[in-house]
Amino acid sequence: MMKLDNEQKGEIIIKVLFIASGYPAIYKYIESSILSALKERQDTETISIQPTQPLEEVKEAYILFKPDLILTVLGDLLDEEKRKWIASQSIPSALWLTEDPFYTNRSINILTFFKYIFTINRASAGYYKTLGYQHVDYLPLGTNPDIYIPQPHEKKVDVCLIGYPYEERIKYVNLILKETEIRVLVAGNLWRKSLIHQQKQKQLIIIDKWVPPKRAGIIYQSAKICLNTIRSNLHPSNQNLAGIQNDSVNNRTFDIAALSSFQLVQHTNDLATHFDLGTEISSFHSETDLLNMLDFYLLKENLRQEIAVNARNKVLNVHTFSHRLERIFSIIFD
User: In whole angstroms, what is the distance from residue 162 CA to residue 289 CA?
Assistant: First the structure.
């Protein structure tokens, strides 16, 4: 194990200086989950600062706390002066890139300032290694079982989809509305504008705003099937000139599973590395496949419940934020 300065009564205490991303909405929940998982560890002490705090305040916190690790999420709101200061320190620094591959242009300008790079996209990890970075690892986000708690809810809709209406998601919703009588609920900013010609359809419910995690949990548990689609790496808003593929699971995969809710996931190359296909999770490969899977699973309540319970058990065993932090520490300190 890497030698640590902080040792108390024979027990190694890892001190973590955590720098928040500085972003609102879902990032407040992600960072709260990371901090909660750090707090639960018996071998860890943590302080948290914001990326916009003056460098002198950051230096003072560093001197007083004497951390063994600097850990941050995204890192793009840290100004260059702070990045250079982080790079100049003798302790390990770790960057967790949680928007890959969509902002690769931005990410590659930050990598050089950190000793360890973690990314939620497997293809991004491979790309960064081709640029010469050695300490790069694929690490998807986990879930927080204290937020995503299974509770009994009446199944009010057949299918729900939560998230921003990217083109792929609009396509799948329109497909379901056109080809079936399945009741669909969508939630997220700009869905009403994106489905302007479908709004009057009785089978469609639109919640036209961002929903926080606990509200999302209620929606997921009120649907027979949670549709989980993957954002395309080709969307015009992306900053990904290298064209890195989005080939990994998203964080919703773990959150929905934690709720014991059944989900149909758009297939990715690494899905089977996280769940057993068919017994812990189900995926679709095409539009026709999606329609067939919906028809099949809507008639199989017991099977849906069995798969959903298996998925929750898997997540609690290997896919929480506590598991992700254990992975970070084992890579850096073992």
Answer: 20
